[in-house]
Each structure stands twice: as structure tokens, then as C-alpha cells.
Design goal:
Blueprint (H helix, E strand, L loop, with lengths): L2 H18 L2 H23 L6 H17 L5 H15 L3
Helix pairs in contact: 1-2, 2-3, 2-4
């Protein structure tokens, strides 16, 4: 799978959450999408050539920093982690 296809699949995954997700999953999906989109946007602005693995690593670093800053309670963090595993499985 190419990086572009992965990004497209992830964006579709986030869009599909609107239809099927609970309110808590919508929150977690939106939160995760923000981190994902930020990593994609940074790579585009900086004109970086990155792999899916590098993109995922950037997202994970961002999430870990957010967790350390106490941005999420444990329940929300668990949902974000679960959804992130589902997004990574799209690759």
C-alpha cells in the first residue's frame, strides 16, 4: 500500500466513524484524527518523503506526548489506543 492510499483509507475510516460510532468513539476518533492530520500536514508542508511507518511513528510520538501532558482520561485514552490500532491495521 502506498502512503497516499493509506492516508485516504485512514480518512475514510474517520469519516465512517460519524455514521457508526458512539459519542465517546466520535470524540476519540476526532482527537486521533487531529494528531494524524497534523502529522500528514507537517510532512506535506516540509515536503518530506516519508513512509507509512514514519507517519505512524510521528503520530505515536504526538499521542505519547499528549498522554504525558494529561490531555485524556484513562477511558478516552483506551478508546484512542483502540482506534489507532484499527487505523494502523489499514496499512
Amino acid at each position: 500500500m502506498t502512503l497516499v492510499n493509506y492516508i485516504d483509507a485512514a480518512q475514510q475510516y474517520y469519516d465512517d466513524l460519524v455514521i457508526k460510532a458512539t459519542d465517546d468513539e466520535l470524540f476519540a476518533g476526532g482527537y486521533l484524527r487531529g494528531h494524524f492530520d497534523l502529522a500528514v500536514g507537517y510532512a506535506e508542508v516540509e515536503q518530506l518523503t516519508i513512509s507509512i511507518e514514519q507517519l505512524n511513528e510521528t503520530v505515536e510520538q504526538s499521542l505519547v506526548k499528549a498522554y504525558r501532558n494529561g490531555e485524556l482520561n484513562e477511558e478516552d485514552k483506551a478508546l484512542v489506543v483502540r482506534l489507532w490500532e484499527e487505523v494502523k491495521a489499514l496499512a
